[in-house]
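Supplementary Methods. Inverse-folding protocol.

Structures were first reduced to a discrete structure-token string of length 409. This string, shown here, constituted the complete conditioning input.
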């Protein structure tokens, strides 16, 4: 049996000579509990927003995005695409062509992104789940129908679908611009047949049309594309990605879902852990209460320490008694904090106790999203015990300095 831990548990429960020690000890435990609860709740809120944004962004992100390392286009033939499709773990492959274009609808103009796709694109990106208005259609056959992003729909003031066409203007690549140029743009008209919302400016300001339309407007070769988007089996994504890289060598770069939004994840994590550090300062402040409580306990148990030393107890045993005392106080407060945090998070998940200020109806959720992760509990546990240990060092050192012959004896 650990003798230091035994004495620490006895001192935790034993009667103190003054009630002030119990009060300060209780305050420190409550402070640790509230600080622990705050840390878990704050991290869970950041997790909730991260999961929400990842879900929103992921709905329009392929599992694998293959684009050129340099330049604006990649060259890939149909044989290579068929070979990629035959790889185990590859569900669907779709070539796309993207370019910034000028759009016009009933005299209103706006700049946005035009995306040319084929029939396989909708197998990679489930656009049907994001439709607002209109009827879902595929690009299996050549068509001049178009999917219009919500932002583009708003700026072009498209109120009626399948009626007035949208004019597309793209600069002619094989023409030298001059003052005497009669028409520097290639033009085409498409019919807005459906609108979608992804709730991201870049995606919602996009017009999705048949691949051939954009290819003709940009005057590209048959094997030229802006990128390939690939849908992968989650269980075989890593092996499938490696197999694709062996097929496509040269001017290609490969990005998974995380790499496509790498800056977003970095910023989100940075904000999360900065918030964690700020709220950790509350535990540091509580540590002063624990230090005071342990210091007073050392003075209260001065006679006991003297007797233990007279009986031959080494300094290490005396020091460990008060270090364990700090760990016990930290563990009690932390356990209470974990319970309070879990209860509060579960109530928020099921009942939405804390609401967002959504008076204007601009948010897609009404309550703060929360999500618990085991890693957060591990980090908070380590943080609480480190702070508790630091708060216990000075009282433990003071206990060691007490001589074996007490003047009070």
């Amino acid at each position: 049996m650990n003798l230091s831990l035994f004495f620490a548990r006895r001192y935790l429960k034993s009667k103190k000579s003054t009630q002030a020690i119990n009060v300060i000890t209780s305050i420190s435990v409550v402070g640790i509990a509230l600080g622990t609860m705050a840390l878990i709740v704050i991290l869970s809120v950041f997790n909730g927003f991260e999961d929400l944004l990842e879900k929103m962004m992921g709905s329009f992100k392929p599992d694998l995005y293959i684009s050129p390392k340099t330049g604006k286009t990649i060259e890939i033939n149909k044989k290579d695409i068929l070979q990629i499709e035959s790889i185990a773990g590859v569900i669907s492959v779709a070539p796309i062509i993207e370019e910034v274009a000028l759009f016009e609808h009933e005299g209103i103009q706006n700049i946005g992104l035009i995306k040319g796709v084929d029939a396989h694109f909708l197998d990679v990106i489930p656009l049907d789940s994001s439709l607002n208005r209109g009827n879902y259609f595929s690009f299996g056959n050549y068509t001049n129908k178009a999917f219009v992003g919500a932002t583009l729909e708003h700026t072009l003031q498209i109120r009626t679908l399948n009626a007035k066409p949208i004019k597309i203007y793209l600069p002619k690549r094989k023409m030298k611009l001059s003052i005497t140029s009669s028409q520097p743009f290639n033009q085409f008209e498409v019919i807005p047949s459906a609108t979608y919302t992804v709730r991201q400016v870049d995606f919602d300001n996009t017009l999705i049309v048949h691949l051939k339309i954009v290819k003709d407007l940009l005057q590209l070769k048959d094997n030229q594309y802006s990128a390939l988007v690939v849908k992968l089996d989650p269980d075989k994504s890593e092996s499938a990605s490696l197999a694709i890289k062996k097929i496509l060598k040269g001017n290609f770069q490969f990005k998974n879902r995380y790499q496509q939004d790498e800056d977003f994840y970095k910023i989100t994590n940075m904000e999360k852990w900065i918030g964690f550090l700020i709220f950790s300062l509350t535990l540091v402040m509580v540590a002063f209460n624990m230090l005071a409580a342990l210091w007073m306990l050392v003075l209260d148990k001065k006679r006991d320490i003297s007797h233990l030393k007279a009986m031959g107890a080494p300094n290490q045993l005396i020091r460990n008694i008060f270090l364990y005392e700090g760990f016990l106080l930290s563990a009690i407060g932390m356990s209470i904090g974990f319970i309070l945090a879990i209860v509060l998070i579960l109530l928020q998940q099921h009942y939405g106790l804390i609401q967002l200020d959504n008076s204007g109806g601009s948010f897609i959720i009404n309550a703060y999203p929360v999500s618990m992760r085991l890693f957060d509990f591990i980090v908070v546990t380590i943080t609480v015990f480190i702070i508790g240990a630091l708060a216990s060092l000075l009282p433990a050192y003071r206990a060691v300095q007490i001589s074996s012959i007490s003047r009070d004896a």
